[in-house]
Design a protein that fits this description.
Helix content is 32%, strand content 23%. By secondary structure, the chain is α/β, with parallel strands linked by helices. A 6-stranded mixed β-sheet has the order 8-7-6-9-11-10, sandwiched between helices. A 5-stranded parallel β-sheet has the order 2-1-12-13-14. Strand 1 (4-7), helix 1 and strand 2 (37-40) form a beta-alpha-beta unit. Helix 1 (22-33) runs parallel beside helix 10. The longest helix is centred in the middle third of the chain and has 14 residues, at 100-113. It is globular, with a radius of gyration of 18 Å.
């Protein structure tokens, strides 16, 4: 019996327009109503959990009454496993944050090399973006999910002066060589690791992973690995597969994830996550 359902967000529960469909939301609601612990496991910070999922759970303004999901999830893994939190108790269950010195060192090296990058970070569950243009682009792309975004003038200064620890740094590639140059710099940062998409790199502590955070949450809840199902699409979901008994890859997932999956569902363009959840519920007679 599946007792915990760990679901990635971007590329999994969200389509290519970064939107969650009604079918996916309803499938998650059905799972939660059936007593399955639904856990968003995401590269996003907690403040940018998709609004349709978080409505009524996290503090957001102007939430339509019909979209309140206060009982949908209580626990979340954010920033690629840097944190696992009990939202109701406001308690951190797992923490693997970047050392401030490492974050500042990497930012400084990127500046010194003149790499063409856009800078963002996760600190205090918020999404900080450097400069008005990048912030506007982020709010345009993520829409209402960007309620947790705030603009800073200088990322190094923001990191240096903040009382919050750094959960993750993000580097948006503004030139064809930017990713290669960032990878080269990270080779000299032994305490850091990264995951990449076509447009940005996510850098975080080597101790942080979705798998480590999910395993810590399972231990806290007394749920066995065999009682956990997970759904994902990206390379940052590989570690999550190691902490789950039932591993489901999206149709749009990277090759490595599909090879390790117990089965592959449809793509995020065709409600693949919803179909996988519906299948789990059917097999359990729920």
């Amino acid at each position: 019996m599946i007792k915990l359902l760990a679901v990635d967000m971007d590329g999994t529960c969200l389509n290519s327009r970064s939107r969650m469909t009604g079918r996916t939301l309803e499938a998650l609601r059905r799972a939660a109503a059936a007593g399955i612990t639904v856990v968003p496991v995401t590269g996003r910070c907690l403040g940018c959990i998709p609004h349709r999922l978080a409505a009524g759970t996290l503090k957001q303004d102007n939430t339509p009454e019909g979209e309140k999901n206060g009982d949908l999830f209580r626990y979340a893994v954010s920033s690629n496993g840097a944190l696992a939190v009990d939202i109701r108790k406001k308690q951190v269950l797992f923490r693997a944050l970047m050392l401030r010195e490492d974050a500042l060192s990497l930012l400084g090296m990127c500046r010194a090399r003149g790499i063409r990058l856009g800078y963002a970070s996760h600190m205090g569950h918020r999404y900080l973006m450097e400069g008005k243009l990048l912030t506007m682009a982020g709010r345009l792309i993520y829409g209402r999910d960007a309620w947790g975004v705030c603009c800073v003038k200088d990322m190094e200064q923001a990191v240096r002066e903040s009382c919050r620890e750094v959960e993750e740094l993000q580097f948006y590639f503004l030139s064809g060589s930017a990713e290669k140059e960032l990878r080269s710099l990270l080779a000299d940062c032994p305490r850091l690791t990264a995951a990449y998409t076509g447009i940005y790199g996510e850098v975080y502590s080597r101790e942080a992973s979705k798998g480590n955070a999910l395993a810590a949450l399972e231990a806290y809840l007394g749920i066995a690995r065999e009682e956990t199902a997970c759904i994902g699409d990206g390379e940052n979901d590989l570690s999550m597969f190691e902490s789950a008994g039932l591993r489901i890859a999206m149709g749009n997932a990277v090759k490595e994830l599909k090879e390790r999956a117990d089965y592959v569902t449809d793509s995020n363009h065709r409600d693949g996550a919803a179909k996988a959840i519906e299948r789990i519920l059917k097999l359990q007679g729920l």
